[in-house]
Amino acid sequence: MTITGLYSLYQYQYTKQLNRQKSVGKPELGGPFTLVDVDGKTVSNTDLTGQWVLIYFGFTKCPDICPEEMAKVSEVLEGLDTSGRHVLPVFITIDPARDTPARLKSYFETADFHKRVIALTGSHEALQKACRAYRVYFTRPTAEEVARGDYLLDHSIISYLLDPQGNFVEFFGKSLSRAEMETKMAKCIDEWESAKWWDDTLPSWLKESKEESPTIKPVLPGSRAAAGR
Fold first, then answer.
1. Exposure string over 167-188, b if 16+ CB within 10 A, otherwise e
2. What would the pLDDT profile of 154-168 be if each residue is shown by its tens digit?
3. Is the alpha carbon torsion for 186, 189, 194, 197 positive or negative?
4. Is the pLDDT of residue 58 over 90?
5. pLDDT, position 142
6. 161: which strand partners?
7. Using N-to-C axis directions, what is the helix angle for 178-201 and 3-23, rounded to 10°?
8. Do 59 and 95 contact (CB within 8 A), yes or no?
9. φ/ψ of residue 39, rounded to 5
10. How confident is the model over 66-110, as pLDDT tens digits?
11. What is the rounded CA–CA span in Å between residue 136 and residue 177?
């Protein structure tokens, strides 16, 4: 095997090992859903593949937490945009009784959030299915509250990052600052895309030799990966 081939093997093994370690204990989140956007067009989870996606569950009548989180998310994604890491923000309502397509359209046209945000709603059953897939907790208003039209909903305050294949990668809570969230997202994106590049680039014989040589060390001495440990 050439020096170039050996180095490629080291790097491939390192990124694979890193991803395996990260996957241990990772919650099984995500799944199929079918909702509608602000124009009434059907949008499913498969329509979002082919790009990085960040999903946030909330509602437009939320007085403070949802607007604050969406503002933070917008700043994070704008920062990532400048470095060429483009992520699509998706807002899924947990309040379909009030968050109709028309309401969502008006809200996001006037709110100062990221320009690419996609807002989705649907039937209570469809939204409940999406929430279950991501283990999102939220309260449901009583019949009296719905009749009054004035109520608040308690819910999980988490954003979910999906890779271009539609798989869950990581989640980010309210406690993270804008800078922390941006740094963590950039790291997730770079590591995933690095592993994908090696998978797409290495010839099959080199991948097979990696499986046949489990004793090879994952990182070359003096490499950037070794220095960063």
1. ebbbbbeeebeeeebbeebeeb
2. 889 999 999 999 999
3. negative
4. yes
5. 81
6. 54, 170
7. 130
8. yes
9. -100, 10
10. 999 999 999 999 999 999 999 999 999 999 999 999 999 999 999
11. 21
Residue 229 has pLDDT above 50, yes or no: no
- Which residue do the tokens 């809200």 mark? 107
Rg (CA), the chain: 21
- The identity of residue 65, as a single letter, is I
Q: Tell me which amino acid residue 207 is.
A: K
**Closest CA relative to residue 14, chosen from 214, 217, 222, 223:** 217
Q: Which of 171, 128, 126, 149 is nearest to 34 (CA)?
A: 126
**Residue with tokens 């990085």, as numbered in its chain:** 52
Q: Where are the alpha helices (DSSP H) in 111-216?
A: 124-133, 143-148, 178-201, 204-212
Set out the domains of the chain in order of their start, with CATH numbers: 34-193 (3.40.30.10)
Strand-pairing partners, residue 162, are: 53, 168
| Prediction pTM value | 0.78
HSE (side-chain half, CA atoms, 13 Å) at 119: 25
Instruction: Answer yes or no: are the C-beta atoms of 220 and 10 closer than 8 Å.
Output: yes
Q: What token pair was written down for 165?
A: 């294949």
Closest-CA residue to 119 (of 167, 73, 154, 83):
73
pLDDT class of 35 with cuts at 50, 70, 90: very high
Angle at 161 between CA 121 and CA 92, to 5 degrees: 10
